[in-house]
Amino acid sequence: MTHTTEPSSGADRQGRGAHARVGGNDKGGHSKESRGSGGKGLHRRKFLGGMAGAAGLAAVGAAGVTFSMLTGGNNSKASAADASGTLTIPELLEGTTSGTTTTYTLTAQTGTSEVLSGVTSTTAGYNGSYLGPTMKWTKGNTALLNITNSLGADTTVHFHGAHIPPKMDGGPQNAFADGVTWSPTFEVLDEAKTLWYHPHALGTTAEQVVKGLAGMIIVEDDSDVSAALPSEYGVDDIPIILQCLAVDAAGDIKYEAAGYRTSGVVFPVLVNGTNVDSTTLGFTATKKRTRFRVLNASPSDIMTVQRGDGGTLTQIATDQGYLTEATEVTTIRLVAGARAEFVLDLEDAVTLQAVVTTGWIRGGSGTYDFLTVTPDATDTPADLPSTLNTITRYDTSAFTERTITLGQGTGATMTIDGAAGLTMAAMTMISTTLDAEEVWTIKNATQLEHSFHLHDVPYQLIEINGETPTGVDLGWFDTYEVVGGGSIKIAMKFTDFADDTYMYMLHCHLLQHEDEGMMASLMVTDS
Predict the structure, then answer these.
(1) Residue ranges of the alpha helices (H) in 229-281?
(2) Which residues contact 521 (CB under 8 A, 6 or more apart)?
(3) What is the tally of helices (H) and strands (E) in the chain?
(4) Model-level pTM?
(5) Per-residue pLDDT tens over the stretch 451-498
(6) How many CA atoms lie less than 13 Å away from 238 in the CB half-sphere?
(7) What is the pLDDT of residues 36-62, one digit of tens each?
(8) How many CB atoms lie within 10 A of CB 489?
(9) Taking CA 491 as the corner, what is the angle to CA 490 and CA 492, rounded to the nearest 5 degrees?
(10) Helix (H, G, I), strand (E, B) or coil at 408
């Protein structure tokens, strides 16, 4: 199979801003032995990821803040590779329900895993050595989480994409020390969607996430549309957590610029914690229709999901819930932190591919056959609902307008509106009021790739690099690509929550950029 570095088609990808590769890549051959539709084949990936040029859409230059993850306490050993070659499904965390409140227990802990086959890496996870269990929340119910920090260092747990009070959001103000249990609680107001959880402390997010602190959240509701879609976890409702990491030959997982530039560093791709550099995982679909929830949990690289046979994926959701209708696409492009959902109705086996695009100074590059889905079912699924969601486009004529500039300071410092958010006091603070309606132009004043994430409320895309969005870009988002020299215009309403002490965050979700200052605070107060 021919090695490629870009999606086969960009016309219908989820993040559709023009993206050009600038600068060369240290790429060698990447080939896969031919196989039948259900075979595993062999990946050969012996090249280093791309070194971005000094300017252009994929070039960046930011060093990470040093953070030392201690290894002690709840250490455990697990292999990130599944020798059977089958897809590993993250455990579903069973909460304890009393009335309408469900209590979940998580421990952030250190451990070891094999991120590279046969090589032990120091890692971290929730309730295990690497990654975390999937949580299911139900709209209208109350979630209570008891989260114990056993990392040996401060951490937070942010519920990425959740519409919850700022005091419970898990931002930098919610940092808690080793040995402490943090117990946020809130009513689940979100409709059906795919969220995730991960650390968000100042200066340490990149290292803690790349070590393995990440997990998926599935929000369920009682709508007729949700009832008509696949929802049996691990059977026809499948989580896919994609990661491209930087790892040296000794297994040390890198997170900062010096580490990424180290000679001999490779950029493995992991799927639910399993390295797919030299294998294609398998999944047997016991229902003809299978739903896939895809999260790009990479620190910086872009993941584009597509079918190996060039066929279409039926996309049903973006970051923040269902599209208006099921939409046939050939690629789904996810920047760091973004999610999407699609379904496959299969008669024959299909192989899913991940096309990796370097997002930072170096990173992964190439096309991976990561999962072969083989149907073994006799059921006949009903037609998908003709309408999945009603999305009323904002009339922004009376909305308050702001321009937010993503910039670069001296050295490795990254900025928002000229300020490097290395401390809460130093970062730009944006103030708004409850029920405010606003349009923001997010301007990328650098030639670097950025992934813009807003906490608290979802947003609609109004413009992408000056063009009106179409197709799946008319859905709801909380994380979206802003290419070098480009811009997006987004609209949102600040509903439900106000606080004069705790703030939400807005930032680049290239985690190294976030740690180097590309983060600002958002305070929503009563009008």
Answers:
(1) 257-260
(2) 421, 424, 427, 428, 429, 430, 503, 504, 505, 506
(3) 4, 39
(4) 0.87
(5) 999 999 999 999 999 999 999 999 999 999 999 999 999 999 999 999
(6) 25
(7) 333 333 333 322 333 333 333 333 333
(8) 22
(9) 130
(10) strand
